[in-house]
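Researcher: Following up on the earlier apo prediction. This time include the ligand. It's thiamine diphosphate, with the SMILES given after the sequence.
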Amino acid sequence: MKKILLGNEAIVQGALEAGVNFVSAYPGTPSSEIGNIFGDIAKKHGVYFEFSTNEKVAMEASIGASFSGLKCLVAMKNFGLNVASEALIPFCYTGTKGPTVIIVADDPSCWSSGQSEQNTRAFAYLAHIPMLEPSDAQEAKDFTKLGFEISEKYNLPVIIRITTRVAHQRMPVEIGTIKKSSTKGKFVKDVKKYVTMPPRVLEMKEELLEKMDKLGGDAEKSKWNVLTGGNGKIGIITSGVSYLYIKEVLDKLGLNMPTLKLGFFNPLPRKKISSFIKGLDKVLIVEELEGWLEKEVNILAKQVNPELKIHGKDVLPISREFNADIVGPAIAKILGKKWKKSLEIGNWKLEIPKRYPRLCEGCPYWFVFSAVKEVAPEGTIFGGGIGCYMLAGFPPHGIQDYLLCMGSSIGVAHGIKKNSKQKLITFIGDGSFFHAGIPALINTVYNKSNPLIIIMDNRITAMTGHQPNPGMGKTGMGENSEEILIEDIVKACGVKHVRVIDPKNISELKATIKEFLDKKEVSVIVSKRICALWERRLKRSEKHGK
Amino acid sequence: MGNKTFNIVITGTGGQGLITLLQIVAEAATIEGFDVKTAELHGLSQRGGSVNTHIRIGEKVYSPLVPLGSADLILSLEYLETLRAIPYSNSKTTFLINCYSLPFVGTISEKEIDRRLSELIKSDKIIIAASEVCRKELGKDVLGGIYLISYAAFKGLLPIKPESIKKAIARIIPKKYLDINQKAYKLAKYAN
Ligand SMILES: Cc1ncc(C[n+]2csc(CCOP(=O)(O)OP(=O)(O)O)c2C)c(N)n1
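Model: Understood. Below is the ligand-bound prediction.
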């Protein structure tokens, strides 16, 4: 039976069919639906699910569950793996007990990402971790299951690296049977396996490299590294969603070029690639973002076909996602053909006024931004962070002078304030505060600088689609939990000037901002009011008796 | 339809229900036995920014993205946003446009949008007051999308029968909102 699934839904289905027991995630587009769905269905399938405080903690939760023998899935967006890498890299050394698959979602073209256009493939090299790249929703499901098989066989965690156009692609996907799950684990002590202390740590590295070497043998035989197309002297090597654009372009050109589609990014099937390029005159490597596959092919060609002309980033961009309109001209070019643009309407690059994303109607941030704008003296620096509150940077607000990553609005504020007398107000969301703001706040107190920090406590992680966080008293599976009060944490960190304000009390808010801007020590306003969209949704579901 | 894919681009703003429409069309296409691939965006764009979604229907579909100049049908939920979809059109593309504006600071006048639309679109252009009809009859602008897609099916602008759209609506829309969505579908049936 087939059912239309979103790439991320297909991953959930794949994990359930593989018999996953334990799922931990941190939201981030384009990966968020994986956690959202597990939040809804985990109980029904006897699976444990949590939204963890951040990605490192999510990774660690699954590591613990894996050590206890459970089958684990971890999901996050690309930046999340930066946070989680601290735990991931030694996890590759210890290896898994229960098979573990990690879904990491990249976002070429930054459709839903500030920060950077990160290419997570780099972690394959850094961590020596197996990495698979599906190209459509069906493969997203198949590769998730394959990931669990590989993990089971080699006791290694496996990354499935997806991109926006895979995660948010829908297609009919073959549905299989879901395995029964149990969440009973047992940690069996094994110091040699779980303790990465020297000198054992170096033996562990050798064992890891050996495992990867063996897995390389499997990769050579895997049906997921597949040769398609006919014969010819000009070939294509590709992976991920790019394969779909190539199929489309070749169809359009009426060509059947030999194409090697790689499901494995790490380890690469080097022999298979070598034998593919041996007989070619020219090869085009079609990969989104940085050309690492191209580098590998360059190395292999030196041995087996030094005359081979290798094209890739000379005809394709390093930045921005691909599509048929980008891949088409590149293929035509290496064939010495003309690419007929399908675009018929000329001069369409007309200026259309930009429609900026904006705060929702009734959003509590409206009050905060307008109060800040009104009372902040000329020249005040405004620190920004990742979340709905980054809309501070768009009109009509225009109060955001730097923006890097989750939590850094505080960390960077300290660095600026330490060296300058300029006034500084910095914003951070409740989700971001729990995620990575707390160590930065402690640092600000400990190392004595005095920014004004406004914590935008809208009672939820809003931007990524309303996931629960530790301030809400609800877990990812909807269970009640301790409601952790932000102001208590702030006080415990040693902040002397703390006030919790409902931003609708705009005069109190303004007076407090003025007062706190003159403090010699760091000050914190917790602007506490529920996200308007979420509030409306809660009311609606009450009305409908959800 | 042969081997050719039928390409649809839906354009509008975050919050207008573009993803629901995409799900309905995709579901309806599979009811009729077609292959289908779609592309959508989540996240920042949900907060009232410009969005477009792609749906491709055919015997066998590879890429989820509609290439430039290759749309057979452009469904526009918001008047100005139509302009942003023009690069996907060619001389045979049908535009089905909701006569509905969500203006913002710095936008251009409706007259200017009109001027550009008639200058740039040489193919069929159907403008209907989908959201307005739904507001008057059902009290909800946002049903304009369902009206628009149903209208497209009834007028033969889609390679999908209205009956399949109806079935898909019943499968995709949550029970508590189904009735009102079915009413929007029926309104489109009797539109002239
Ligand atoms: C390391 C990392 N993980 C996840 C994300 C994705 N992300 C973007 S915004 C956001 C939510 C922030 O929530 P909160 O701080 O509560 O702000 P709100 O959206 O509610 O204003 C997340 C998780 C990210 N950018 N970086």
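Model: Chain B touches chain A through 50 residues (CB under 8 Å).
Researcher: Noted. I'll compare it with the apo version next.
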